[in-house]
Specification:
This protein is mainly α. The protein has helices at about 1-25, 30-55, 60-85.
Amino acid sequence: MIDIAILISLHVVGIAMLLSLWRLVRGPGVPDRILALDTLNINAIALLILDGMYLKSEIYFEAALVIAMLGFVGTVVLSKYVLRRDIVE
């Protein structure tokens, strides 16, 4: 029963990733594209965790943790660049 729920969740997260990619490509402004990239990052983390649950493998959880850390740093750097046009203070 849980496998069916995970498969449905995988499809829903896949659709959410496609919608985030659409916003990333068609976003009217830079802040919208940064937000879409962050949302795509969160959806990728969810996809990895669901894959790990479905395949019963711990390596996916570690990969999701690494992607979460890199995504957070990337979002902060992009936001800082948009606000100040300079990354290093």
